[in-house]
Specification:
The protein is α+β, with helices and mostly antiparallel strands. The chain folds into 2 domains: 284 residues, no CATH class; 176 residues, no CATH class. The chain has 10 helices and 17 strands. Strands 4, 5, 6, 7, 8, 9, 10, 11, 12, 13, 14, 15, 16 and 17 form a 14-stranded antiparallel β-sheet that branches. Strand 7 and strand 8 form a beta hairpin. Helix 7 packs antiparallel against helix 8. The relative contact order is 0.12. The N terminus is likely disordered.
Length: 481
């Protein structure tokens, strides 16, 4: 959940990460083996209340005052232990049955959040993976956790990808057991800062109380110098504007960050983290399923938009600009028609940007920008189709679009962009592998292997061919029987 810079303010408390880039990647073990005792802190960084096992036998060990100070957190106005609801040691009889409506990871199959960061478009995809992870969180005691994948894109390029681990306690509270973080720069992993694991680096952290009440305080992350934040519940029973209509029963938490700043976060039933804002940066729920799923017919404009953007992609890459101009005009007409019945204002904003970029790039005959804009229009159409189709079908479509992006970036001679495209494809592979036949999975792996080798060899011609192969592979893949 940590996202360098922006990440600390906007990180979705419980949305991140898939099994990509695990081949050959060694995750950093931060080894924070400082002694832990149960401790509470007053608002001014003054005296702490410490309890031994005899007075609070069922309490989770907490970072000591010395450890907070060593991490530069000694002056944070954190709550007293008596104000916190995450001190008692939880029990886990059915940890993977996460039914808490304000953090419904077990049911939230796919979610899209959208917004802006550093005045640039920000887009995230959160996907529940089918596998679980066993974590030894205290001596000789393990818990089975659900695994969620999170990918964040800043201005259309991968910024972060990670895996998050969650479990629900018997009282209905949801707990965070760690994350494996990959920060990207210029298409490559440059940091795993923020990675932590319960038991190895510190205690698990409460992501969501069973029944949040005004004044309750909990720490969604509790590893000083790695990932640390504290939340106080400020509002309950709030009605918020959702992607497809009003959502009742939301809560607002005021989050204290490790730099002393605050931000408000909204959590809504059926969605989990719903809205975050911090110093001009915003991340909001754009669409989530099954909360926004519908049995209504899919609008015909979405398929028309997909087909037109595909045609425009090919005409722009062949530099057939007259045809491309006609297709760009048609794409705009289709989009304007769809907007009359559209949902999710955040995806509408993304679509508006993509259409304008498409028209501008075709007008200027910019092959690379026109190709990317056509892909972005198709991506918006796919995101909107999530209401009507299974997440597996949407992810296969996304993978094919990233194959197109490989073709565009390789033709443009941009090795860094191709490297980032390959990283995204590897992560999406982690989402779809369980739903494909063994033969199709092998085809996908073979194509990704060729792409990876071409990137390592800086062979962009082969990378472009690999991208074309991936497009064909994902478009023709079939679900497992």
């Amino acid at each position: 959940m940590t996202h360098a810079g922006v990440r600390e303010a906007l990180k979705p408390c419980g949305s991140r990460r898939s099994g990509g880039l695990r081949r050959g990647v060694t995750f950093a073990a931060f080894g924070l083996a400082a002694t832990l005792v149960v401790a509470g802190c007053d608002g001014g960084g003054g005296s702490r209340e410490s309890y031994g096992a005899s007075s609070l036998p069922s309490s989770l060990p907490q970072p000591t005052r010395a450890r907070l100070e060593a991490a530069g957190l000694g002056d944070l106005p954190v709550a007293r232990a008596s104000e916190r609801v995450d001190i008692a040691t939880p029990t886990f009889s059915s940890p993977t049955e996460i039914t808490n409506p304000l953090f419904p990871i077990s049911d939230l199959r796919s979610a899209i959040l959208s917004g802006r960061v550093d005045a640039k478009p920000f887009h995230t995809e959160t996907t529940l993976l089918p596998e679980t992870r066993l974590i030894e969180w205290t001596q000789n005691e393990t818990v089975e956790t659900r695994v969620s994948q999170y990918i964040a894109y800043l201005d259309g390029r991968i910024q972060e990808a990670a895996l998050d681990f969650y479990a629900q306690a018997d009282d209905g509270s949801v707990w965070y057991f760690g994350e494996e973080v990959h920060e990207y720069r210029d298409g490559s992993v440059f940091s795993t800062e923020g990675t932590w694991l319960a038991g190895r680096d510190g205690p698990p952290a409460m992501i969501m109380p069973d029944v949040p009440r005004i004044g309750d305080v909990h720490r969604p992350e509790n590893i000083p110098a790695v990932a640390f934040e504290e939340v106080e519940i400020k509002t309950v029973a709030k009605t918020v504007a959702g992607p497809t209509g009003p959502v009742e029963g939301a809560i607002v938490g005021r989050e204290l960050h490790d730099d002393g700043s605050y931000s408000d976060k909204i959590f809504a039933p059926g969605y989990g983290e719903f809205y975050s804002a911090h110093e001009g940066d915003v991340e909001a729920m754009a669409l989530g399923v099954p909360a926004d799923s519908t049995e209504e017919p899919e609008p015909s404009e979405l398929d028309a938009l997909s087909l037109t953007s595909e045609r425009l992609f090919h005409s722009s890459q062949r530099r057939e600009w007259r045809r491309a101009r006609l297709d760009a005009k048609r794409a705009r007409i289709i989009w304007e028609s769809y907007k009359q019945q559209a949902v999710s204002r955040w995806l509408m904003r993304e679509g508006n940007r993509a259409i304008e970029a498409l028209v501008t790039s075709v007008r200027s005959r910019d092959q690379a920008k026109a190709g990317t804009a056509a892909i972005d229009v198709a991506q918006t159409a796919l995101d909107l189709k999530l209401r009507y189709r299974k997440p597996l079908a949407i992810d296969l479509g996304r993978a094919a679009l990233w194959g197109r992006q490989v073709v565009v970036d390789a033709r443009d001679g941009d090795l860094e962009a191709v490297t980032g495209d390959g990283a995204v494809l590897d992560w999406i592979r982690g989402r779809v592998e369980h739903g494909l036949s063994a033969v199709d999975t092998t085809r996908v792996d073979a194509a990704l292997l060729v792409l990876g080798e071409s990137i390592a060899d800086q062979d962009l011609q082969t990378a472009r061919k690999a991208g074309a192969r991936l497009i064909n592979t994902f478009e023709k893949s079939h679900p497992a029987s």
